[in-house]
Write a structure and sequence with these properties.
Blueprint (H helix, E strand, L loop, with lengths): L6 H18 L6 E4 L22 E4 L10 E7 L25 E5 H4 L8 E6 L2 E11 L19 E4 L1 H6 L9 E8 L1
Length: about 190
């Protein structure tokens, strides 16, 4: 019987297959939106939130990175209180939440159409761990409009957390705003 592939070409084909599979597991932008300048006083910059810049293109995502035992993410600061930089009431329960309650919003892909609503997740960071309740979506598909407080779309790897989460992780207030973390369903 004649063999059409040498060991070397078999390895090349195997490596290409592995690369294609890992490429398929990547989460790539699904589109872009053009930023609009917010009307005066319409973009709440509490907790160092960004406002959209006119003409700037922002990537949008319908996915988030694949989940693992400890999914890597970026922790950001959000106020879930009425008048806070989180905008309107939380998607999961239509309520506002006190900043002293450990609650989070997840990027669109991880929010998964609300399937994690009112469930707990465990966040690991700064050498500590905290359990927080998912109450909202950090929208990765839309932004730069009144419904999104004239803030850009959320990146696809965000866990947007209340002050209570930051306190529980022992992060000093002058370092609140951005932290590499891991998280998992609790």
């Amino acid at each position: 019987m004649t063999c059409f592939f040498s060991k070397g070409s078999f390895l090349v084909i195997l490596l290409l297959a592995i690369c294609l599979v890992s490429e398929a597991q990547q989460c790539r932008p699904s589109g872009r939106i053009r930023g609009k300048k917010p009307p005066p006083g319409q973009c709440n910059q509490e907790d160092d939130s960004d406002c959209c810049k006119a003409g700037k293109m922002y990537p949008t995502y319908t996915c988030s990175p694949p989940m693992s035992g400890n999914t890597q993410a970026y922790l950001t600061l959000n106020s879930f209180e009425a008048g806070g930089d989180g905008g309107g009431p939380s998607e999961c329960d239509g309520k506002y939440h006190n900043d002293n309650t450990p609650v989070v919003a997840l990027s669109t892909g991880w929010y998964n159409g609300g399937s994690r609503c009112l469930n707990n997740i465990r966040i690991n960071g700064n050498g500590r761990s905290v359990v927080a309740k998912v109450v909202d979506e950090c929208d990765s598909t839309e932004g730069c409009d009144a419904d999104h407080d004239y803030q850009p779309p959320c990146p696809n790897n965000i866990v947007d957390a209340s002050k209570a989460v930051w306190k529980a992780l022992g992060v000093s207030e002058d370092n609140w705003g951005g932290l590499d973390i891991t998280w998992t369903d609790a």
